[in-house]
Specification:
The complex is a heterodimer.
Chain A lengths: L10 H66 L2 H8 L3 H21 L3 E8 L4 E3 L16 H9 L1 E8 L9 E10 L6 E10 H10 L7 E5 L5 E3 L3 H5 L17 E5 L3 E7 L6 E7 H52 L15 H39 L4 H17 L2 H20 L4 E3 H19 L3 E7 L1 H4 L2 E3 L4 H10 L8 E10 L2 E8 L6 H5 L13 H15 L4 E7 L3 E9 L9
Parallel strand pairs in A: 12-14
Antiparallel strand pairs in A: 1-2, 1-5, 3-4, 4-5, 6-7, 6-10, 8-9, 9-10, 11-13, 14-15, 15-17, 16-17
Chain B lengths: L1 H38 L2 E6 L8 H17 L1 E6 L7 H13 L4 E4 L8 H9 L3 E5 L10 E4 L2 H15 L6 E5 L5 H14 L6 E6 L4 H14 L5 E4 L2 H13 L7 E5 L3 H9 L2 E7 L1 H16 L7 E3 L2 E5 L6 H7 L5
Parallel strand pairs in B: 1-2, 1-3, 3-4, 4-5, 5-11, 6-7, 6-8, 8-9, 9-10
Antiparallel strand pairs in B: 10-12
Helix pairs in contact in B: 2-10, 3-4, 5-6, 7-8
Classes of the chains: A alpha+beta, B alpha/beta.
Chain lengths: ~600, ~325
């Protein structure tokens, strides 16, 4: 299917090209818009999804912290705790210690993720979980940040750290600490703390699935890392984290982007912690790769279909046009037998083809009518030409018959009259244009018979026919005018006996009939004007020759006709050249 | 006329459907191809000298390995005997790993010389070899990711130099006279001490046994009682020396600095027996080792020696944000 095959700019090629151009532009712009849309949609969806996850995570963290808050409320307003911290006698201390211990046990049982519950009195009394727990002797309380901060700020949520207050134990925890006050003097009598197992929070973060490369990290108010899966790498400078841009810090919900990552953050008012969900852009957009490749495929299919459609559609338009064009070329060369059936459609091109067909029909009719007219014209011309029997000859013959009758030469009168009758019948009554060579020569013989009698011994003749051509058909009345010519222009002026020899022979697919006389002959000038009409002293001597030649050419074509050889004082040879026509090949 | 139109329309429809189907076939293949492609990740086998989840050092290293694996989207297979002394078992594992035809093998050689021919087999098989933590007697592998022991030693030396005086006498407890790590760390200590280098009075060896270290430390203190600074060049040496000093009641008199960070060492640091410890960064070592292995597979240039780093920690800096994670990897 060559679209651009033709060298000249074909209508078909241009139509296909413009179709394609339109489709390609449409498809490509559609694709670009769709791909852009889909990748931004994916980002939006990802932010939404991540936000849902991290908000849920924040809620969970808040829940933990709230739980710790509740525990702390129970403990710091508990009179047993205060009494334990402020009791004076050892017995009282011991009594309240047991009560607090009991309480701690209940509280610890409610939540598995509580690591330590403890009170540290300003007077040095303390209880962590139960009295069997040994305090780390190498730790001074006021070096503990959660302890000193609580005293300073009354309460604090201390972000992830290693709790080292218990001997030989170094758990990762999140500590909530609060001061315990004497309700009467409003004096700080101790610090309460509860440690939440850091696992509870890191597990929450690890559970969140943000893809193979996605993760969650948490920073506190101060911007310190509470949880980050690559915390160590960050501290040793092997990993860098894009932190929240300043302008986003005020917003509750925020999202920002680095070269490779999409960050979504949510801040909890209760803890002051910001949970940040990190999604790998490449990974996230790898699903767009699928979409993009689908779009590409769709585009290829669309363009392919458009290509096919445009070829088919264009063909539907241009194919009839091309057929029309071909037909027109055929008509140009003269062939009207063009077939355009099936090419018509009910559109403008169909109309065009129908008009063309009508036009061809019209031209064909015209040509046919013209042919008929021409034929008729030729026929009437032929008739006009052949009908002419010299009236002088008729007159002279009849005159001769009268003379013979007066002489009483009845035998000759009969002979001549019958010859004349034959002659007349043949020339007038026979409507058939064609006769056999024999018939034609018989006619000539009748003529010669009359002339021989008229010229009494001055004329001798012989007729010779090759048997091959005897039955071949020729147009009639072509030999007699030549004989007439030979007598009037040759023999008549000769002294003594004149001889006319008629030969009909077959030569190279032609019938050649020669009329040879040994009469006066013709000059070169006479020969040159032999075919001209109206000549010599107002007498129509040339009429016969001219007519015969014209008729032969009209009937058989230009290449046939008469030829003459003549020499003054020696005689003339007139030859008739005719084609061999086997029966039934007549034009008319 | 009408019929002809219909048939050409069905022809067009048929061509479109065929085009769609034909186009869908390579797409299906394409998807498969893509899946195969994404499945064909870089594969690296990590062969440790010790694969022990209970051990902080080795589990931190595995944690680092996993971080790199997820970051670079690598398939990492972990292998290794449970104990450091099983050289033969590790060699068998190396052969098994070679048969699996990974893109690279990250090896922690179990032995300085026994492992050599097996490491050579890895290279002969056309697998990229990266050494981690330790080296061997022959220079093998495209890259060594390890703690720069000289640098670690120098940190200890520099720390002691700050407190060194004219009457300072220094004793060194080392794991072995032939251990490359011991030699590097000792020369690091000497370099860090600078002009106080000649204050080093004695170097004793414990052959990687803390009990032996305990003994040789006590013996050394008996022989040379003026010693007031002791350096323990590995965990066993340091812990043994610390116990000896604690038991002898000399923590106040002797400034002790040790290498590595077992929980016992951290407690002893908190107690004040150790004045400082230099800790390695096994997580970084694992991370950087797998990263380097990945880079060699990707035909990127990698430095022949990569220092995974070390950190000097005193009692005051145990609970800083940066050091907490290093000293207390939470894997409980």
């Amino acid at each position: 299917m060559t679209i651009m095959g033709e060298r000249k700019k074909s209508l078909r090629g241009r139509m296909i090209l413009s179709f394609l151009l339109i489709v390609v532009i449409a498809v490509v712009s559609f694709m670009i818009i769709s791909i852009n849309r889909s990748s931004s949609t994916i980002k939006e969806t990802s932010v939404d999804y991540t936000l849902q996850l991290i908000e849920l995570m924040n809620e969970n963290i808040d829940f933990y912290i709230e739980n710790m808050e509740n525990i702390s409320q129970i403990v710091i307003y508990n009179s047993d705790v205060r009494k334990y911290l402020t009791a004076d006698s050892d017995a009282d201390v011991d009594e309240y210690l047991s009560k607090v211990e009991e309480q701690f046990e209940i509280l610890k049982d409610t939540r598995k993720d509580i690591y330590n519950i403890g009170v540290l009195g300003m007077n040095g009394r303390y209880l962590i979980n139960d009295r069997s727990v040994e305090m780390n002797a190498y730790v001074k309380w006021d070096t503990l940040e959660w302890y000193s901060k609580a005293i300073k700020d009354r309460e604090t949520v201390y972000s992830s750290h290693v709790q080292n207050i218990v001997y030989k134990e170094y758990p990762w925890v999140v500590t909530l600490s609060k001061v315990i006050k004497d309700p009467f003097s409003d004096e700080i009598i101790g610090v309460f703390f509860v440690d939440l197992n850091y696992r509870a929070i890191s597990d929450l973060a690890e559970e969140i699935n943000l893809g193979q490369k996605g993760y969650v990290y948490i920073v506190n108010d101060a911007g310190e890392i509470v949880y980050h899966p690559k915390q160590q790498l960050i501290y040793s400078g092997l990993w860098e984290e894009e932190l929240m841009p300043d302008e986003q810090k005020e917003a509750d919900i925020s999202s920002w982007e680095s070269d490779t990552k999409l960050y979504t953050a949510s801040k909890s008012e209760m803890t002051g912690w910001t949970v940040v969900g990190v999604t790998d852009l490449d990974e996230m957009l790898s699903s767009t790769d699928d979409i993009i490749s689908m779009y590409y495929l769709l585009a290829v299919i669309l363009i392919g279909a458009a290509m096919l459609l445009s070829v088919l559609l264009t063909d539907k338009i241009t194919l009839p046009l091309r057929r029309l064009q071909k037909s027109m070329q055929e008509v140009e060369t003269g062939n009207f037998a063009v077939d355009l059936s099936g090419a018509e459609s009910k559109d403008e091109i169909g109309d065009l083809i129908r008009s063309f067909q009508i036009m061809i029909q019209e031209i064909e009719n015209l040509i046919e009518r013209n042919n008929i007219e021409q034929e008729e014209k030729r026929k009437s011309e032929l008739n006009a030409l052949q009908a002419q029997i010299n009236p002088h000859f008729l007159y002279n013959t009849l005159d001769s018959i009268i003379w013979m009758a007066e002489d009483g030469n009845t035998k000759d009168v009969v002979l001549m009259t019958s010859a004349l009758a034959k002659l007349l019948r043949k020339s007038i009554s026979n409507q058939n244009e064609l006769v056999t060579v024999t018939e034609e020569l018989e006619y000539t013989r009748s003529y010669l018979t009359i002339q021989k009698m008229r010229y009494k011994g001055k004329l001798k003749y012989s007729i010779d026919v090759e048997p091959v051509i005897a039955d071949m058909e020729i147009i009639k009345l072509i030999v007699q005018p030549l004989v007439e010519n030979a007598i009037y222009h040759g023999i008549k002026y000769k002294d003594g006996i004149g001889t006319i020899i008629i030969e009909a022979v077959y030569r190279e697919k032609e019938i050649v009939i020669k009329v040879i006389d040994d009469g006066y002959g013709m000059s070169e000038e006479q020969l040159a004007h032999i075919f001209d009409k109206h000549e010599i002293n107002g007498r129509k001597y040339g009429v016969g020759i001219h007519n015969v030649h014209k008729r032969i050419q009209l009937y058989y074509g230009e290449e046939y006709g008469l030829s003459f050889i003549s020499k003054i004082g020696q005689g003339t040879i007139a030859s008739i050249h005719l084609p061999v026509r086997t029966g039934g090949q007549d034009e008319t | 006329m009408k019929r002809k139109k219909d048939s050409s329309q069905t022809l067009i429809l048929a061509i479109i459907i065929i085009t769609a189907l034909v186009a869908a076939i390579p797409y299906a293949f394409l998807r498969n191809y893509r899946n195969e492609q994404s499945e064909k990740k870089v594969s690296i086998i990590f062969i440790s000298k010790r694969l022990d989840a209970e051990n902080d050092f080795w589990s931190a290293m595995v944690e680092g390995i996993n971080m790199a694996a997820s970051e670079y989207d690598i398939d990492v297979l972990l292998m290794g005997p449970e104990s450091e002394s099983e050289h033969e078992l590790q060699n068998q594992m190396i052969e098994k790993a070679i048969a699996m035809k990974p893109d690279a093998i990250a090896l922690v050689p179990s032995d300085y010389s026994v492992t050599v021919p097996y490491a050579k087999k890895i290279e002969a098989a056309g697998i990229k070899l990266i050494l981690m933590d330790s080296v061997m007697e022959e220079d093998l592998g495209l890259c060594v990711v390890a703690t720069d022991n000289f640098e670690g030693g120098r940190k200890m030396g520099e720390y002691l130099k700050k407190y060194a005086e004219e009457n300072s006498a220094i004793g060194i407890v080392a794991q072995s006279p032939s251990s490359s790590t011991a030699i590097d760390r000792e020369s690091g200590v000497r370099s860090g001490l600078d002009e106080y280098e000649d204050h080093i009075k004695e170097v004793v060896y414990c052959y990687s046994e803390s009990d032996k270290a305990y003994e040789v430390t006590l013996e050394m203190l008996e022989r040379t009682p003026e010693i007031n600074m002791i350096v323990g060049l590995n965990e066993d040496s340091a812990v043994g020396a610390a116990r000896a000093i604690k038991d002898a009641g000399l923590p106040q008199k002797i400034r002790l600095i040790g290498f590595d960070s077992s929980m016992e060492q951290v407690q002893l640091l908190e107690e004040g027996v150790f004045d400082a410890i230099v800790v390695q960064r096994p997580l970084n070592m694992g991370y950087l080792g797998i990263k380097a292995a990945y880079q060699t597979v990707m035909n990127e240039t990698v430095e022949a020696k990569i220092d995974s780093g070390s950190e000097l920690i005193t009692k005051d800096t145990i609970y800083t944000k940066e050091n907490e994670k290093l000293l207390f990897p939470f894997n409980q």
